[in-house]
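Support reply, case 0932

Customer input (verbatim):
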Amino acid sequence: MTAELLPMTLREIRNEAFPRKIEILLNEHPEKFCAKESVHCSQTEMERYLVFGGLPGICFQRTSALRQSRFRDHINTILSRDLRLIVQTTLDTVTLRNLLVTLAKKQGEPIQWSNLCRSTRISRKTLPAILSAFEALFLIRWVSSHKTTKPVTYYFEDQGLASYLTGYQPGSLQPGDLTRFIYANFRAFFYYDLNYPAQVFEYRTRGGACVPLVFQTEKTTLGILPIIEKEATRSAILSANSFLDSDAFGKNKRLAIAHTGDETKVLAKNLISLPWQKLI
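Our regenerated output:
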């Protein structure tokens, strides 16, 4: 048996135990979550985590220049040496780095193979092999949908590395930033807690409904829908209801709409709207 060591979560960096609030979301009525849980994370801490990431040799470097240098060396080593031990390719490191940058900007979005080939100038035949090597090197993690076992999107294993590649700057919160932050911190809980082994999916329909993070355990499926509005929007509630009413992932489903406001509301017995900070 082999075990992966994922990048550290915000809780681990702060030397805190994994929160039990995820268990409450999975097992108890939302009213109990409202009564028990308080905010344990600020937007500043979230943005700092997205910049620093969770790689132990990098995330504790306080000097920006040194941290940037470590990220650069890490990528160069992977692209110039490690990658070529896994896949035979004539692509140069500039082309491969451009691919990584493009992927970092699009994580969590459905893969459009033709657009990705065109923007990176990598053939459709070569691209899947390179992406598989990226996964083997713990750069990205594939995510499947409820409709197919084939991967439809991906997330970077370390969000600090993704931020380095995109030039992310704190201060202007985007929906994708909130989603990737929650993904990085939730996935580690489900991976390390042997009581709740889970698979990660996304839920997306042709009608536009989307729940980007779906954690399916043996007994319960938990959907997380991050939004940057200060309360649950009509669009978010429609996506939530589409997910909860669908046949996907069985009948025992719950969903949390994570917004940027202050109020927590129980919208149904299996649907809660809450500040995203209460999840971490």
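We compared this against your earlier run and they match. Two observations from our side: The mean pLDDT is 90. The chain has two domains: 13-50+169-279, 56-166. Please reopen the case if you see a mismatch on your end.
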